[in-house]
Amino acid sequence: MHLELTKTQEKNLKALAQQIIDRNTQHNLTGYKNIEKLYKEQIVDCVKALHACKTGLSKTVVDCGSGAGLPGLVWGVMDNSLNIVTIDNNLKKINFQKKAIKTLELNNIKPIHTRTEDHSEQKKHTIVTKAFSSVKKTIEANKNNKNKKNLMLIKKDNEKTHQELLDAAPLIYDYKRYTYSHNKERMVVLEIYDS
Is the pLDDT at 2 greater than 60, yes or no? Predict the structure, then answer.
């Protein structure tokens, strides 16, 4: 899949990768030490996931457990028409995101320091997660969120994810799969409607 990035998007995404690596020792943002590896393996994955599932997104997207801002900050760089809310219960990670947002001059992202279970969004929205938890635990963490349209879970398309779907089956009303490949690995964005 060709990424179709504008020069500005590519510049900002590489700058984000640089900031994550630079601030990693202070904020414990990632296990990555190398900017290129982080960019190719994580940032590009977020870009591909957005291309795969964009048709299912609400205009407001809530990134739960966003950590270093993946995918929230990446998606905010990619599409400034999206209103992105990033949530993390780690204040250092939220403070990192605020600095990155200011540096990259992104005005469509609002970081919030809270637990996923405690957040309620007033507008109709899509919840997105990457490396957050199992399908079942993600649904349960967001069950009281009355204004959510759907959940988008970025996962590896493997047996573990298939088993997670089976385990969560009683909580799921309907779901769709958006598949893509990344670094020779099959990936999927699960669009879930819970019952």
Answer: no
What is the CB-side half-sphere exposure of residue 63 using CA atoms within 13 A?
Answer: 29
Spatial strand order in the sheet of 125-130: 109-113, 83-88, 60-64, 125-130, 148-156, 185-194, 172-182
Q: pLDDT by residue (tens digit) across 75-121?
A: 999 999 999 999 999 999 999 999 999 999 999 999 999 999 899 88
1 vs 23, residue with greater confidence: 23
Of 46, 42, 38, 45, residue with least CA distance to 63: 46
Q: Which of these, 107, 85, 82, 104, lies nearest to 94 by C-alpha position?
A: 85
- Residue where the block lists tokens 């992104």: 106
Q: Is the peptide bond before 170 cis (omega within 30 degrees of 0)?
A: no
Determine the 3-state secondary structure of 71 from DSSP.
Answer: coil
